[in-house]
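Case 401 in the screening queue. Each case pairs one protein sequence with one candidate compound; here the compound is pyridoxal-5'-phosphate. For every case the pipeline is the same: read the inputs, emit a complex structure as tokens, and attach any notable structural observations.

Predict complex for case 401.
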Amino acid sequence: MPGYEVFDKEERRQIMDVLKTGVLFRYEFPNERKGIYKVKEFEEAFARYCGVAQAQAVSSGTAALKVALAALGIGAGDEVITQGFTFVATWEAIFDIGAIPVFAEIDETLNMDPADVEKKITPRTKAIIPVHMLGAQARIEKIVAIARRHNLKVIEDTAQAAGGRIKGKHVGTFGDMGTFSFDPVKTITTGEGGMVITNDAELYRRACEYHDHGHDHVPNPGGRGGEGRSFIGFNYRMMELQGAIGLAQLAKLDSIIARQRKNKARIKKALKKIKGITFRRLVDEAGDTATFLAFFLPDAEKARAFNAALKENEAGAIYFAENTWHYYPKWEHLLAGSTLAASGWPFQHKEAGRDLKYRPDALPQSARIVERCLVYPIPVKMPKERLAQILSAIEKAAKVL
Ligand SMILES: *Cc1c(COP(=O)(O)O)cnc(C)c1O
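Case 401 output:
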């Protein structure tokens, strides 16, 4: 599942290219860097891989979301719809830009339910962030069509689905912008890092400048100190060592996915034989990254019992209903409106009359789905012994159903 499993001499060779020049910064130092621009090269390779015009590397997947929101002009008071089954980063970025996260239900794709999105649109809605969770596609074509009808922007949070496709077209390229993460547990990793992709030259310019304190990056004889600015920005830059590792990892992405697909198919075959087990609906199975295998039991009680038996046999699955980082009712700090700001921001703002409350039972449809769901992360490397252990655990667990 994570790219660190396949770290080898390619990553080391790429890192050494950077260390030989001593230039860790992605801009400037034209004499010292001897033509080595790893972050730039990584951006170009990533854009080519996804089939888009532009890619902007940033310091994390969370930063990628923030930069995309900024580029799209989202700000204070705007509502942004996302889903209640995602990593906390998705809605942290929405709060951080000053906007208000609104949570939609998921369906059996484990991703955003387009029908519920439509119900959550208000006059203040400005954007939708569907997440391609657990390696597989959201119903992105439907979501983009809804967005177009309502004049809304779409950012695809593709942090968990790099390399995923729908009918050959890369996820992350359907909406206005796509964002990626290369943190330590993602399909490819640079330790920390992220990417924003788009086909829109103006959105790219805004993302590029915003992520670097507003620097306009127009060729300037005076160097960075002489560059202009047209709006305020921040620092979300990626460094050269990360760009170098990214190049080595990206070259392996399709082979990582191919190996995961084989491993996933073996486990899925064993689960298919068990009566009562059904699988997560995939928008396009051929374009699934096979980073995870998600399946459903008939009810919550059976899901817990089945997983207890898997655990007893050393092959427990993830039960997201009890996971505190990815599931709305478990985000106690969100539900309690906990913030470091003494004023209560971003939950409260007295002058603006802002008083946000997130209720634990707001997403009953998502609860019914998540509570019946078990998930196996799929490794890139799976020794025969480990596969045998999982298959035998599944066979034993089937007896409790
Ligand atoms: C990992 C992740 C992020 C954030 O990426 P970081 O690089 O860890 O900041 C955002 N969204 C989702 C769905 C993720 O899984």
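Case 401 observations:
- The CA atoms of residues 1 and 379 lie 4 Å apart.
- The longest strand covers residues 54-58.
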